[in-house]
């Protein structure tokens, strides 16, 4: 297994009788689902229509299509959208720890996510879903709480 910047880690799992809490049973089920989605471990994005691997440039174009379909003006970069979302969460009194975990903004957040909370960002997702993009006079888009 690759564990962030720390390199490879070997994990030994042991079978337990109770299948509901058996790590091996859960891993096997997860791995079977994963095999259906992609057989190439290094690919993060695939074209869903013809199942071909996308290049980094094609991934960028696909992300911009998603942003456009969401009604966000194309002059806003992914970084800008991320910054606005972080600011909105600060305005909603979310803690720095919650924001870092959601945004993957720090290495310590990676450590916590990998070892403890398994990316449990429900409160941030809920708060972001309550924010609305509005188009102001003059055609400017703005994230409104």
UniProtKB/TrEMBL annotation:
GO MF annotation: an example: DNA binding
Keyword Kinase belongs to the record: no
One GO BP: DNA recombination
Domain of life: Eukaryota
Keywords on record: DNA recombination
Entry keyword annotation includes Transport: no
Gene3D superfamilies named among the record's database cross-references: Intergrase catalytic core (1.10.443.10)
Alphabetical list of InterPro entries matching this protein: DNA_brk_join_enz, Integrase-like_cat_sf
Name of this chain's protein: Tyr recombinase domain-containing protein
Species lineage: Eukaryota, Metamonada, Preaxostyla, Oxymonadida, Streblomastigidae
């Amino acid at each position: 297994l690759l564990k962030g910047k720390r390199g490879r880690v070997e994990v030994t799992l042991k079978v337990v009788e109770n299948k509901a809490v058996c790590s091996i049973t859960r891993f096997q089920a997860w791995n079977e689902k994963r095999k259906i989605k992609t057989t190439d471990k290094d690919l993060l994005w695939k074209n869903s229509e013809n199942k071909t691997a996308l290049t980094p440039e094609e991934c960028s174009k696909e992300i911009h299509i998603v942003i456009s379909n969401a009604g966000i003006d194309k002059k806003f970069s992914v970084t800008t959208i991320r910054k606005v979302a972080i600011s909105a969460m600060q305005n909603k009194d979310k803690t720095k720890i919650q924001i870092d975990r959601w945004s993957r903004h720090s290495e310590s957040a990676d450590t916590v996510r990998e070892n403890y909370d398994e990316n449990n960002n429900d409160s941030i997702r809920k708060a972001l879903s309550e924010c609305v993009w509005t188009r102001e006079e003059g055609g400017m888009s703005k994230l409104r709480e």
